[in-house]
Specification:
170 residues, alpha+beta, Neuraminidase, four-stranded antiparallel beta sheet, 1 helix
Length: 170
């Protein structure tokens, strides 16, 4: 029959062996297990920079920022380490927020207050124009996303009294 102290000693021994194995696992890995985030020089500002979204190849990064004095969307080319101009997207008298990039970065889907309320818009980088997606949606809208080919858009809305997901085909 095992005594209480013997059981405690076995448990402590087990915990120590597991701890040693875990430390050996961490030390013995070639790939870093604990990642340190890297701040990209020239990308961040002293203002709030939020809602990052990558193109599928990781080259382009869209995000929202207050750096210009109002909420606006920015597109950063990681290969060339520079910002891409987005003509006709950002407007001084409204905010643009929550961007999401299509796979090829041609389209940026986002939330805009251009019409005095939050709407879902999609910006086409090829023709430098935005299209209103949520014109017939009542209630709040948020968190837009776009399919790989840019034809389907989904977003959250309170149109029916609680948060639901709406899918729109263009």
């Amino acid at each position: 029959m095992h005594t209480y102290n013997h059981c405690i000693e076995q448990l402590i021994g087990y915990i120590r062996s597991c701890s040693i194995l875990f430390v050996l696992f961490l030390v013995g890995c070639n790939d870093s297990v604990l990642l340190s985030p890297q701040v990209v020089a020239g990308l961040n500002s002293k203002s709030a920079d939020q809602h990052p979204s990558f193109s599928s190849d990781g080259r382009y990064l869209a995000f929202a920022s207050d750096r210009s004095g109002s909420r606006a969307i920015y597109l950063y080319d990681q290969e060339q380490s520079r910002f891409i101009n987005l003509p006709n997207l950002n407007h001084r008298n409204s905010s643009q927020d929550q961007p999401f990039l299509s796979a090829d970065a041609r389209y940026i889907i986002y939330v805009s207050t251009e019409r005095g309320r939050a709407d879902i818009m999609v910006y086409d980088r090829d023709n430098e124009r935005s299209e209103l997606i949520s014109a017939n949606t009542r209630g709040s809208v948020a968190n837009p996303t776009i399919s790989k080919d840019g034809r389907k858009i989904a977003f959250e809305t309170t149109q029916l009294g609680q948060w639901h997901i709406v899918v729109v085909e263009r």
